[in-house]
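Technical annex B. To support the medicinal chemistry partners, we prepared a structural model of the target in complex with nickel (II) ion, based solely on the information shown next.
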Amino acid sequence: MSVREVLHMGDARLLQRADELRKFDTPELHTMLADMRDTMHALNGVGLAAPQIGVGLRVVIFEVAGNPRYPEAEAVPQTVLINPVLTPLSDAMEEGWEGCLSVPGMRGLVPRYKHLRYQGRDEFGAIIDRTVSGFHARVVQHECDHLDGILYPMRIRDLKDFGFNEALFPGEEVRDE
Ligand code: NI
């Protein structure tokens, strides 16, 4: 297990569509997931997509532990989501601040679907099928966008709502996701 380099915005690999994973429960997959977890934890992120470490496969992880420093961020279970399919459950959208380990030190206000069903597989090939809303839905949409080569700044409606953490939120500790 090791902390991998996270690609930063501007790297062409972040703009490619990732491929479906075909074989589950392989040593290579488990090693990659261990590296992704180590990397996400080392950088204090809430999610990471395989393309961010230069692997063009449709694999994401995310996890939000209940943290009193981020009371607005509800807990999201530690999840490995592979070959995901996202289905918005209504047209309702909401704006929220996002960061990204590939865009360090910055935040942007991004519209996302409020209510979402997501389906896919875990690392063993077991089916995942969840209906979520709010912050959980936002995290899933952000991470799965990486699989289609989309970074959150591409979804900001007004670039006035994009900037550096310390300028947008002076005095607050803000983490990347
Ligand atoms: Ni990201």
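Notes passed to the chemistry partners:
Residues 100-102, 142, 146 surround nickel (II) ion (CB under 6 Å).
The chain has three helices and eight strands.
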